[in-house]
Amino acid sequence: MEVLKLEKKFKEVYGCDSEYVFHSPGRINLIGEHIDYNGGFVFPCALDFGTYAMVKIRDDNKVNFASTNFELKVNCDLNDLHYEKKDDWANYPKGVIKMMQDKGYGVKGMDILISGNIPNGAGLSSSASLEVLVGVIVNNLFNDGKIDRVEIVKLSQKAENEFIGVNCGIMDQFAVGMGKKDKAILLNCETCEYDYADVKLLDYSIVIMNTNKRRALNESKYNERRAECEKALEIIRKVKPVKNLCEIKPEEFDELEKLFTDENVKNRAKHSVYENARVLKAFECLNNGDLTEFGRLLIESHNSLKNLYEVTGKELDTIVEEALLADGCDGARMTGAGFGGCAIALVKKDKIDSFIDKVKPNYTKRIGYEPSFYLSGIGEGTHQVKR
Ligand code: GLA
């Protein structure tokens, strides 16, 4: 139904029928936060909601972008793609097209209508969803689908780093582009080797809890954390030749701890080392059906992001606290960059309604506005839906 409506909308905007339909998911990360840029393991999965694109190929060099989410329409020329603040959301697709052009891949003119169901600024990767979406469009329509998917993922990350100027790691674009139905991805961010894991939650579900606190100022804090990790790495390298922080085992870190004079830098490194170990344990737990231990690891991860990495904030801490107080919830943690946005909770299936009924008013009482809750299946990575 949604697609039919969008086809109608496309005709309204561009005065002709669309030819192709693509879909790209949002993502959550089960565990492994703020370690993709430290060469660690992450464990994300794609959601079953995301971003649609309706496309028609043009016979000139123009690319036109419209969206059902924003008023702003942007028209640009393939020979002159550059960042413009006023182009707002359209800078993401422009950036990906530019990266693909620069790499020598074919691109032609298009009319594109974008429509997203991922709340913006909620930490569910609406921007990565849009980036990989456009990468897959360019691949399928102009490059016979021959570009390797991981290459599209890397070019999308490059667009975010170099065109948009956000120094993110590879997790979001990878989860969006490589997601598989009902599977989580255990990704080694240093080598890009990956493994799919069945997400057997038995009598549990993952509830996504949106604090509805938009992530503000997160880019500067994000870059600050990255810089602190680089400092930590420099200090450790004086005594131990390592490529990245996540190469260090927790037992080894206890020895290295005394090298640090700056408490913050030490804490950032400690989070990275221990969080990485937690990911591998969590992967095992899901494989063995040990959901209780899996939940405990989620809680440990949140506490580390709160106390050592300091990227949670009042809203995320409150929603996680309230979730853990509710009957049937055996684990909860923030997901994504933090500083607002979403958390996830591991909740017994038959307790979901009472869980929401309890967490919602309690959070609202303490924070002053309501949170939102989403139940999502694990969806497919970016793909062509039609023609
Ligand atoms: C954001 C970034 C990712 C990752 C997470 C934190 O989502 O885009 O690369 O660093 O934060 O785990």
Polypeptide structure, described:
Helix content is 42%, strand content 21%. The chain has 387 residues and is of the alpha+beta class. It has two domains: 2-198 and 379-385, 2-Layer Sandwich (Ribosomal Protein S5, domain 2), CATH 3.30.230; 204-375, 2-Layer Sandwich (Alpha-Beta Plaits), CATH 3.30.70. A six-stranded mixed β-sheet has the order 5-4-6-3-1-13, sandwiched between helices. β4 (62-67) and β5 form a beta hairpin. α2 (91-102) crosses α3, α3 (126-142) packs across α4 (149-164) and α6 packs across α8 (263-288). The chain is globular, with a radius of gyration of 21 Å. The two termini are 17 Å apart. Bound molecules: alpha-D-galactopyranose. Alpha-D-galactopyranose binds at residues 33-34, 36-37, 168-169, 171-172, 336-337.
Write the layout of secondary structure elements.
Elements: H1 2-14, E1 20-29, E2 41-42, E3 44-57, E4 62-67, E5 74-77, H2 91-102, E6 110-116, H3 126-142, H4 149-164, H5 171-178, E7 183-188, E8 194-198, E9 204-210, H6 218-237, H7 250-256, H8 263-288, H9 291-307, H10 314-325, E10 329-334, E11 342-348, H11 352-367, E12 372-375, E13 383-386
Parallel strand pairs: 4-6
Antiparallel strand pairs: 1-3, 1-13, 2-7, 3-6, 4-5, 7-8, 9-11, 9-12, 10-11
Helix pairs in contact: 2-3, 2-4, 3-4, 3-5, 4-5, 6-8, 8-9, 10-11
This protein binds alpha-D-galactopyranose.
